[in-house]
Write a structure and sequence with these properties.
216 residues, Helicase, Ruva Protein, domain 3, 50% helix, elongated
Length: 216
């Protein structure tokens, strides 16, 4: 109740711990191993539909690397300078020059021992990129990020609400899953808006307040 009166919501930071694995248990294990060990494959490519959790995972790896004292960066549709850990989200958005830069970065980091993660909406073979870059992305470990089932989304929403410090009744979760947009980022965004509305009203989360939020 104190939090609701003060209107304070803790910052939610993507992590490997608050990622609901679903069918991605093997992928999570591979990411943890890649982050904690200098051995094995140092370049990973993740692909999956929008909202499947690719961005969450890339950001989570960068946060974990920084917490471990490593230099790390994540950019969307752009290629950063080489660091110990580099994540490039939405690789299909790269223009020709950026693709050349990523190709060179891939080769450099593969030799230097850095960790490179790249994500896209399709498997490497179907990406509309330069042939040499597409081939390189298929050389390393390739994982499909599987979207969550409704039950797994409900668990993700529960964890997100818990991280922000408010109770999420089951009927609110059910209504959001039935009537909200299907991708998880949109669902979480609606949940954040619900939390902010409840804080202003100094009331607990409920279906009527959720309807107000969803109706704008």
């Amino acid at each position: 109740m104190t939090q609701m009166l003060l209107g304070i919501a803790p910052e939610w930071i993507p992590s490997l711990e608050n990622f609901v694995a679903g069918r991605n248990v093997e992928l999570l294990s591979a990411l943890r191993h890649a982050l904690s060990s200098s051995q094995g494959e140092r370049c990973l490519y993740l692909w999956g539909e929008a909202g499947s959790g690719k961005t969450h995972l890339l950001q989570a790896i960068v946060v974990s690397a920084r917490n471990a004292g490593k230099s790390a960066i994540c950019l969307c549709g752009a290629v950063p300078q080489a660091m110990e850990v580099v994540a490039v989200d939405d690789v299909e958005m790269l223009d020709d020059e950026a693709q050349i830069t990523l190709f060179a970065l891939y080769n450099r980091m593969r030799e230097s021992g850095g960790l490179l993660l790249v994500s896209g909406k399709q498997a490497p073979a179907f990406l509309k990129l330069r042939d040499d870059l597409r081939t390189r992305l298929g050389w390393g470990l390739v994982y499909q990020v599987h979207a969550l089932t409704d039950a797994e989304k409900a668990e993700a929403l529960r964890q997100h609400a818990q991280a922000r410090g408010f109770d999420l009744p089951n009927e609110v979760t059910s209504y959001l899953l039935r009537h909200g947009r299907r991708d998880l980022p949109s669902l979480l965004g609606t949940l954040d808006a619900l939390d902010e509305r409840c804080l202003r009203l100094k009331r607990g989360a409920s279906v009527p307040i959720l309807k107000e939020v969803m109706n704008g």
